[in-house]
From TrEMBL:
GO MF terms held by the record: phosphatase activity
Native species: Streptomyces canus
UniProt name for this protein: PPM-type phosphatase domain-containing protein
Region of interest: Disordered: 388-411
PANTHER family registered for this protein in UniProt: STAGE II SPORULATION PROTEIN E, STAGE II SPORULATION PROTEIN E-RELATED
Domain of life: Bacteria
UniProt entry keywords in alphabetical sequence: Hydrolase
A Pfam short name: SpoIIE
Taxonomic classification: Bacteria, Bacillati, Actinomycetota, Actinomycetes, Kitasatosporales
Domain PPM-type phosphatase: 171-384
Length: 411
């Protein structure tokens, strides 16, 4: 095996020599040769978080087939995604090795290799490093091709769904020294325009969850105006109250009805958390194993200022290191969602990564609805580690101290 310090630049060069749509194929072939593997595959996690799609394989005999979609529940693929740790097993064909392809806690997919013999620690370490580099290659080339976007979708989206998906942040999960978060959206049959968003400044985390009125294309267009107004205000350095005001004004000015929403800002250096609630359900907080609602002041929904000008109130909320915060839309609470005991489920999943928690909660609501939601079910789960944390503890793109041991609930 080549020395890792010289091999990794060659890995990046291999990706750069190929077209964006072929970059992962070239990388897979490069890794097959480098590790003398009989087969190397890249599998991407789809948007549901319940399926992986085999997008690229080097060394396989078959060709020209449709991408293979594999349910994750109960599989070794799920185990690797949840634990963010390498898996290996001996088989009649050689040593099977699966490693996570992850960037800052965002579980992009998996790298699977079939090695000719039991791999030593040096080989396994090099495979892990290659998988980490592969995460950056997928992210970079995703700017130039729809291949990875296609792989992440279980079915062709409607026009409204296409708009809604484009409004979500590029990465649904994020790990930082002070926090870990993940959002999940289970769309209804007639999309209701739910969105969530987050971004990091140098010393501030911004989070939002929004829910426009209406369904299908009307809701998608309202969500577009709403998210664009919030992002535009945020990027100019506007405070929470001004962000809320601009969102309110944008919906009113463009005749897109109204929307509820919740805007959160956390100072990463002090831990101070502030919230604006525009007619939205109260968030939930898990502290020392107990889940409870955070009762807060509720202002009018966005989009009603044309008839009644309104000032949005910025309020402090109590957030301490070790807390888990859940922001959600009313689709998690109404109709079939009302049959799911969210506080109890939050307490039951306390030891899981926010990625697994978000998926478990939204999937529980879809399951209660028999697979057909009448309203979007959306959550944003945030673990607050505290301002005293200044560095991440990472291994190949993930903090394994925060990872889940296993998934606790079938889909």
């Amino acid at each position: 095996m080549d020395d890792g310090q010289s091999a990794l630049p060659r890995l990046l060069t291999a990706a750069e020599t190929a077209a964006p749509v072929g970059a992962v194929d070239v990388v897979a072939e490069h890794l097959r040769r480098r590790f003398e593997a009989t087969r190397v595959s890249f599998l991407i996690v789809d948007l549901t978080g319940k399926t992986v799609v085999r997008l690229s394989t080097a060394g396989a005999l078959e060709g020209g087939r449709e991408a293979e979609r594999i349910p994750m529940f109960g599989s070794v693929y799920e185990q690797v995604i949840c634990t963010q740790r390498l898996y290996q097993e001996a088989s009649g064909q050689g040593q099977r090795v699966i490693v996570p392809v992850t960037n800052r806690g965002d579980a992009i997919g998996l790298l699977e290799l079939l090695l000719p013999a039991a791999a030593g620690e040096d080989v396994l370490e090099a495979v892990g490093e290659a998988a980490h580099v592969l995460a950056y290659i997928v992210i970079a080339n995703g700017r130039f091709t729809d291949l990875y976007t296609w792989g992440r979708r279980s079915r062709p989206p409607t026009l409204a769904a296409e708009i809604q998906y484009q409004l979500l942040p590029p990465s649904l999960s994020c790990e930082a020294a002070q926090f870990t978060l993940c959002g999940s959206l289970e769309p209804s049959e007639d999309l209701s325009g739910d969105t969530f968003d987050y971004t990091l400044d140098r010393d501030t985390l911004h989070v939002s969850v929004t829910d426009p009125m209406g369904h299908d294309i009307d809701a998608a267009l309202a969500a577009t105006v709403l998210v664009a107004a919030l992002r535009g205000a945020r990027r100019t350095g506007a405070g929470l109250a001004d962000q809320a005001h601009r969102a309110d004004q944008a919906l009113a000015d463009h005749g897109h009805g109204h929307a509820t929403g919740q805007l959160l800002r956390i100072d990463l250096t002090t831990g101070r958390a502030q919230l604006v609630n525009a007619g939205h359900p109260w968030p939930l907080r898990v502290r020392e194993g107990t889940a409870e609602e955070i009762t807060c002041l509720v202002d009018q929904p966005f989009g009603l200022s044309e008839s009644a000008p309104h000032s949005y109130r910025v309020q402090d909320i109590d957030l301490r290191p070790g807390d888990r915060l859940l922001m959600l839309t009313d689709g998690m609470l109404e109709r079939h969602g009302g049959t799911v005991d969210l506080p109890a489920l939050l307490e039951h999943t306390r030891d899981l990564h926010p990625r697994e928690v978000a998926l478990t909660l939204t999937s529980a609501v879809r399951e209660a609805a028999g697979g057909r939601l009448e309203d979007d079910a959306t959550v944003m789960c945030l673990d607050w580690h505290g301002p005293q944390e200044t560095e991440r503890h990472v291994s190949s793109g993930a903090d394994t101290r925060q990872a889940s041991a296993e998934r606790t609930r079938p889909w």
